[in-house]
Write a structure and sequence with these properties.
With 328 residues, the chain is α+β, with helices and mostly antiparallel strands. It contains ten helices and twelve strands. The chain has a five-stranded antiparallel beta sheet, sandwiched between helices.
Amino acid sequence: MNLSIPMKKIECIHQEGKMKLQSKFEQLVHLYFGDKGASWLKRLPELIHYCEQKWPLKVQDPYALSINYVAPALLNNGNEVVVKICLPGKEFLNELEALQLLGEKSIVKLIDYDKDKGLLILQKLSPGITLAEVKDDEEACHIAAKVLRKLTIAVPVNNRLPTTQAKEDSLRTLVIENTQGVGPIYQDTLEKALQTCTYLHQTPKQQLLLHGDFHHYNILYSGEDSWAAIDPKGLIGELEFDVIQFLLNKLPNQGVYELTEKRVNIFTEELQLDKERLLLWGFCKAVLATSWTIDGDRYDQEFFQMIDIFERLYEVHFGKLIKNLDID
């Protein structure tokens, strides 16, 4: 499922001393975390009060929320920060570790945190508009490539972050549990994606610490021609993999094939990437991304179209079909 939402201010309504949360935020938390999420939502006012007492600061109205509570806040000295309240667990710990490790020139600054309660105090990027606001797609790609180049680092020793092997495991589960395909995705496409992902892991290239969810809405303008990434997931893998989520986002109504080809060429040139592996990762990720959005007869058609686009680009650029890969 695609849970990334542009950050914009909206009002948080208070009635009779009780905080009224955004309905979509509540729905997503229930969907993503189940009973644990429901319990966390009940504790949220208490956690906000805890933040205000601990640092101390005053939490303002939140941004548009996905599965975490994120809001600007004012410290007692008048400085602005961002408070991010997460459900404690593996994903929170991954983000915390990534914030501590990734290239500091291209990631939002971590000011303080509370590991037990899932709290982050972050630098407030101003004016904070997202890369999605840049109208020229080629310019946006060049900006993103520059951020990613500074952001990505060699794999630190003794890290506890997951690897892209988890994507192969997810594809294997899809194949096993959906013998007739899933939603609009045929069974042979699922099997081909699993086979491709297996091939990529059997022929590994340089492994790096990646952002893990790098796209337009997670890249913010911080002034003076400077951009920084937010919301890292923290993942170990090839740099080619980290570009894919960007390629899946902010697609036009027409000319998606041509736009994707331009994007692939820009990132390949700017970051000296392996175009073949980039397209193969794109195919695998498009299959996974589509599968996560399937709900009955509904699914994300933008993600689904990218399965075919990555296949066609691979055939055009390398003169062979993805299914003809030499995999043991």
